[in-house]
């Protein structure tokens, strides 16, 4: 999601109008978006199918992981639009509504990912440190209520992003861009701090053999590593908005690096299914069962007494 900031609704004049507009970006980034889309859709769809059909929604961890996969799927459907946006030289042809919805879904996915990972961390902490006392609260009903609250809260937090996005004309290129008016509400530094607290919260647990804990550690570490580069350049972009950085060469470095850090951040939605396969033994076993069931030819039904020839 490439960011442009404008101040009026008519033709917008950009002072450093060549900043970040290199031909290799318009070729490479859409290809990466396309790969992320295919891998993410296939992987997360498999996660949903395996959990729903084989692992079932009988544990708190499975409910949170399923919702995390659904959250990634809702975000991944926007990637073809962002790929088109970049491939056409930052031209948005999809109108105002999809501009708002796509930008909102990106932030929505970020918040839901953080909240579901935090919930998984708390669940593991309670299961390991307070296994007896937490048994009454670590139930499927409580997990489902938590998921509903997370979806609702993340939706409310992503609304400012969707509402402040719109389509604008950029001069002198005459491009129609999906731009944002005010990005004060998009400071995700606190989100990164909250994620670090979540990581510290479960790394201090006492169990070394908890499979869900190891899977969670891998997923959260991947989330952190994927989003950190984007947060660093996003912070530099905020400094540019505040006029702390005004040099066009520095702005060009920021605007050139930003699409690549976004690609790394978006790749996180593809990594979770891969990590489940490497770390989760139950997930691998269920996935093999699903593949075997799909490959096994259907057996003809045994003839009943009524249908048997006489």
From TrEMBL:
Transmembrane segments annotated in the record for this chain: 31-55, 62-83, 103-120, 141-159, 186-205, 212-236, 256-279
Protein's UniProt keywords contain Cell membrane: yes
GO CC annotation: external side of plasma membrane
Coiled coil location: none
Record-level Gene Ontology MF annotations: angiotensin type I receptor activity; angiotensin type II receptor activity; C-C chemokine binding; C-C chemokine receptor activity
Keywords, ordered alphabetically: Cell membrane, Disulfide bond, G-protein coupled receptor, Glycoprotein, Membrane, Receptor, Transducer, Transmembrane, Transmembrane helix
Topology relative to the membrane: Multi-pass membrane protein
Gene3D superfamilies referenced in this protein's UniProt entry, alphabetically: Rhodopsin 7-helix transmembrane proteins
Keyword presence, 4Fe-4S: no
GO biological process, one term: regulation of vasoconstriction
Domain called G-protein coupled receptors family 1 profile: residue spans: 43-276
Family: Belongs to the G-protein coupled receptor 1 family.
Biological role: Receptor for angiotensin II, a vasoconstricting peptide, which acts as a key regulator of blood pressure and sodium retention by the kidney. The activated receptor in turn couples to G-alpha proteins G(q) and thus activates phospholipase C and increases the cytosolic Ca(2+) concentrations, which in turn triggers cellular responses such as stimulation of protein kinase C.
Protein name: Type-1 angiotensin II receptor
């Amino acid at each position: 999601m490439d960011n442009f900031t404008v101040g009026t609704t008519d033709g917008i004049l950009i002072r450093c109008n060549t900043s970040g507009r290199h031909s290799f970006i318009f070729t490479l980034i859409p290809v990466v978006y396309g790969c992320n889309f295919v891998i993410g859709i296939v992987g997360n769809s498999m996660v949903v199918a395996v959990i729903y059909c084989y692992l079932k929604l009988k544990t708190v961890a499975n409910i949170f992981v399923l919702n995390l996969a659904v959250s990634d799927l809702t975000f991944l459907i926007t990637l073809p639009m962002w790929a088109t946006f970049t491939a056409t030289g930052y031209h948005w042809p999809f109108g105002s509504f999809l501009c708002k919805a796509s930008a909102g879904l990106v932030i929505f996915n970020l918040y839901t990912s953080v909240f579901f990972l935090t919930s998984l961390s708390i669940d593991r902490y309670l299961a390991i440190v307070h296994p007896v006392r937490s048994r009454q609260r670590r139930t499927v009903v409580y997990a489902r209520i938590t998921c509903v609250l997370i979806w609702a809260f993340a939706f409310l937090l992503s609304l400012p992003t969707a509402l402040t996005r719109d389509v604008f004309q950029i001069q002198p290129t005459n491009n129609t861009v999906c731009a944002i008016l005010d990005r004060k509400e998009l400071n995700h530094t606190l989100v990164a701090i909250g994620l670090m607290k979540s990581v510290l919260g479960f790394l201090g647990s006492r169990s070394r053999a908890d499979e869900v804990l190891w899977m969670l550690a891998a997923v959260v570490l991947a989330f952190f590593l994927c989003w950190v580069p984007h947060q660093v350049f996003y912070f530099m972009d905020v400094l540019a908005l505040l006029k702390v950085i005004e040099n066009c060469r520095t702005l060009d470095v920021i605007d050139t690096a930003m699409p690549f850090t976004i690609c790394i951040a978006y790749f996180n939605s593809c990594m979770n299914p891969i990590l489940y396969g490497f770390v989760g033994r139950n997930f691998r076993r269920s996935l093999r069962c699903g593949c075997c069931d799909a490959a096994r030819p259907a057996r003809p039904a045994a003839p009943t007494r009524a249908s048997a020839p006489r």
